[in-house]
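To illustrate the input format used throughout this study, we show a single complete record. The first block contains the structure-token representation of the backbone; no residue identities are included at this stage. The design step must infer an amino acid for every position from geometry alone.
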């Protein structure tokens, strides 16, 4: 039996991914499935337990080799009681997720907010490695935020801190899943980008729509890449969507930098795969709007180098 291995689970609004992580922060095997929300808590736990077992088997290990399991969950997560108090994107409240998973896997289970877990992963093994203060922003179904201050995850006195996606950037703006209007998440998440793209396609006046043609006439095929791909091919509507999206993303990032002044702010999640096509224009806006224009030391804005692996590694290292 070798207990140098842990399992990290990234529970997202779209996908669930489990990875077996070794002592050097390497993911040696993984398995995944669709989240398929809405459905009962027990069903989600069944799916998580199933992919954990599959990942462990792929790693040519047994559950006896696993020291413990960590789960990154979107929403307000209490690591002490190990209860998910509320998760707007998963539609759960007071979810005894650790207890339910321990019943299925017979291993100790720790939990943390998914963006906090991703921030920890980047801090330990990614783009924020060696930093004292760092912020990770995750652009997925929602907008997650993870904050590391003096090497420790900051989650506030009620474990619901760092919900960066729920700061309002447009007063009385779009309805957010949390119930407020104008949240950053409603404008800068992958979901928001997809909705912007669909709206732009619907509102096009031209006889031919490049993006509608690209999705084969079916708006259900629109994803977070659609507008970026169209922009790269010279489509004006795609370019307009990307520019609008980036303006909202940069507004929130500027706010975060003005408040926390981290050494590094790394951007992860599916949209971050656009790399410099996303980050270069964001930096240009932030440079013009940040409060520290005259300072020699500035926050480095970069892609999360671990990508979607950050949440798995962070969860495994809780």
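Output of the design step:
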């Amino acid at each position: 039996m070798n207990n140098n291995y842990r399992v990290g689970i990234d529970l997202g609004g779209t996908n669930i991914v489990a990875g077996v992580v070794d002592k050097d922060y390497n993911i040696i095997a993984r398995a995944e499935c669709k989240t398929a929300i809405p459905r009962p808590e027990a069903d989600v736990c069944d799916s998580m337990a199933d992919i954990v077992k599959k990942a462990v088997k792929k790693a040519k290990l047994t559950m006896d080799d696993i020291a413990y399991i960590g789960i990154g969950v979107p929403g307000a997560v209490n690591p002490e009681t190990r209860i998910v108090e509320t998760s707007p994107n998963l539609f759960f409240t007071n979810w005894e997720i650790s207890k339910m998973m321990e019943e299925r896997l017979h291993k100790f289970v720790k939990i943390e907010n998914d963006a906090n877990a991703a921030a920890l992963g980047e801090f330990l093994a990614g783009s924020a490695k060696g930093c004292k203060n760092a912020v990770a922003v995750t652009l997925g179904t929602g907008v997650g935020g993870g904050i590391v201050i003096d090497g420790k995850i900051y989650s506030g006195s009620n474990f619901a801190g760092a919900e960066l996606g729920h700061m309002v950037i447009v007063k009385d703006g779009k309805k957010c899943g949390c119930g407020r209007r104008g949240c950053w998440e409603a404008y800068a998440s992958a979901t928001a980008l997809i909705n912007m793209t669909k709206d732009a396609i619907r509102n096009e006046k031209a006889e031919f729509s490049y993006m509608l043609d690209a999705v084969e006439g079916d708006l259900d095929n629109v994803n977070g890449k659609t507008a970026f791909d169209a922009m790269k091919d010279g489509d004006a509507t795609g370019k307009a969507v990307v520019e609008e999206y980036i303006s909202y993303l940069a507004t929130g990032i500027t706010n975060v930098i003005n408040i926390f002044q981290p050494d590094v702010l790394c951007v992860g999640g599916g949209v971050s795969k656009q790399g410099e096509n996303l980050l270069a224009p964001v930096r240009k806006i932030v440079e013009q709007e940040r409060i520290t224009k005259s300072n020699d030391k500035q926050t480095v804005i970069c892609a999360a180098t671990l990508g979607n692996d950050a949440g798995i590694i962070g969860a495994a290292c809780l």
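Structural context for interpreting the output: The chain has a mean pLDDT of 93. The longest strand covers residues 27-34.
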